[in-house]
Amino acid sequence: MKQKISIIGSGTYGEVIYELVTQLDYEVLGFYDDNKSKHGNYINSVPVLGNIDFNKIDVQNNNFVVAIGDNEIRSHISKIIVEKGGFLPNLIHPSVIISKSAILGQGCVLHANSFIWTNVNIGDFTIISVNANIAHHTTIKTGCFISTGANIGANITIESKSFIGIGAIVMTGVKLIGKSSVIGAGAVIIKDVPDYAVVVGNPGKVIKTVNHHNLTP
């Protein structure tokens, strides 16, 4: 019998997640979204059931995936689900290559053709997008988003809720990407990045600081 799952978020990324979970043979019960204009609509014949209201959603012992790209919001909602006794299964596309020594938290999403090398540690609620490569002994902490085609070198720590843009490169020799930092598309990072920094270019340069909104620690 198929496992059942509900998707939090019915935007375009919700459609991406729908495709992934159906490939993994889950039955999607429905979407939840705070955009009331979507309520009662259908996505791939699956209904948008209502708001993301955990006083009304039956969470305990049920599977969920949070299809929201914003790291802060995704982490916040995911923690509520866990606290209320729900499950966030790891969703790993069949084409992913992942070392037997790699460690995953809960609620991780690994998209097609990503490569997770020896002794990589990926924290809860992190998304690894299509064709991303994570080299050996690197740690990615809670609630990060590694975009399509990003290449992360070896022995690097990426702190919580950081965003690595499309095609960015973090070179081996870098030790730390600070929490809630944003690495722009195509950036080449050759030195450590401080917390809340926005970094662009080749070589990467800090251009501003993120206006962060901490919903979770």
Summarize the structure.
By secondary structure, the protein is mainly β.
Largest β sheet strand count, sense and barrel closure: 8 strands, mixed
Extended strand count: 24
Described by its quaternary structure, the protein is single chain
Q: Helical stretch count? A: 2
- % residues in beta strands: 25-35%
Rg calculated over all Cα atoms: 17 Å
Arithmetic mean of pLDDT: 96
Poorly predicted tracts of residues: none
Structural class: mainly beta
SSE succession: EHEEEEHEEEEEEEEEEEEEEEEEEE
Helix fraction, binned, reads 10-25%
**What is the general shape?**
globular
Q: For the record, give the distance between the C-alpha atoms at the N and C termini, rounded to a whole number.
A: 38 Å
> Major sheet: order of its strands?
6-9-12-15-18-21-23-24
